[in-house]
Amino acid sequence: MSVKYIPVQWNRNKWFYDFVMLAGVVAFLVLFLFVSPGLLSHEFPINPQVHNARAFGACAFVMLTVILCIGPLARIDPRFLPLLYNRRHFGVMTTFVAITHASYILNWYFAFSKSDKFSALLFANTSYTQLAGFPFEAFGIFALICLLILAATSHDFWMKFLTPPVWKRLHALIYFAYAAVVAHVSLGIMQDQQNHVFTVIFIGGALAVAGLHAYAAWLDLRGGDEAGTVSEGWIEVCSPADIKNGFAKIKLLPNGERVAVFNQEGKLSAISNACAHQNGPLGEGKVVFCLVTCPWHGFQYDVTNGRSPAPFTEMVPTYNLRLVDGTIQVDPEANPPGTYVEPVPIPGWKEVPA
User: Fold this and answer.
1) Taking a C-beta distance cutoff of 8 angstroms, is the pair 260, 283 a contact?
2) Which end of the chain offers a freer environment for a tag, N or C, measured as fewer CB atoms within 10 Å?
3) Per residue in 160-214, pLDDT tens?
């Protein structure tokens, strides 16, 4: 968290994260450039510039695949959360790798064109009405533009300026970028592929992204993040015994919002499940001394009033609770962000040893 916008404060974790990421990129490029020629067994020797372009293009695809797998993996298993914390670093580096790929393409295929090489890239092939020979470059250009937008707006300043919901929707462009890359590769290099090693990697990566997202969504549904039963205008959540001390139960409200109901030492409080930073799932965090920590980036909120501890100013909405016949009920109408709500005590509460 930060009370003002300052240059990135590098710490040991960030340095290690970026070092491992850079080492992975270098290892991939070395393997592709010096080992893969024998594995791919091209029918004809390919130009070094073309091979370099393919190396960086393949690297960008693999990096995008890993980026899109981190989110569902972190929801499936919390041990993947450290990969999520600095995922924006991963995205920025992917953008630079993609730019390098595009540079090789421009400076080899279009360097000697009579027209400007950018114009040649856009208008050399306009066969949009046929599948064979379709100008797959258009998909690559679209994907690169998306990555540039995401990298340029990755700083928290843009999230604050645009507001988290708008920023989050903007960064959903990563999915459109990935779909464009899939189309770019499918209509491009795969149509000229003599060896199917890369084809298997490509299809496997795309299926991994789709499969992990589907599995994570299924786990969310199975885990109880469903709409609660309506009772006299209130939403039934669960029995107090179903919420472990320090943790929460998440419920979907009729308006589509999610509420997190916490048990803090036998007292119940409810706040929005969406962190004000990046809409991270607050209900998956743990409460310590009334403060829940967002599992995504460490933002903290007092569960009784939805406020971040001073000097931080982030706030989330709170909700009114009541106990009726041993069932927790929540008022679906949220209080304004930062509104204090008296916690509801659990009668006869006694912590059950783990």
Assistant:
1) yes
2) C
3) 788 777 888 898 999 999 999 998 888 877 666 665 667 777 888 889 999 999 9
Q: Is the separation of the CB atoms in 39 and 195 below 8 Å?
A: yes
| Partners of 261 in the β-ladder | 249, 270
Per-residue pLDDT tens over the stretch 50-73: 889 889 998 999 999 999 999 888
Distance CA 78, CA 294 (A): 12
Query: Measured between alpha carbons, how far apart are the two ends of the chain, in Å?
Result: 32
Longest dimension (CA), the chain: 84
Whether residue 317 contacts residue 271, with contact meaning beta carbons closer than 8 Å, is answered with yes
* CA–CA distance, 220 with 71 (Å, rounded to integer): 13
Q: Give the C-alpha separation, 286 to 301, whole Å.
A: 11
Which residue type is seen at 96? Answer: F
In the chain the domains, ranked by start, together with CATH numbers, are: 12-223 (no CATH), 229-345 (2.102.10.10)
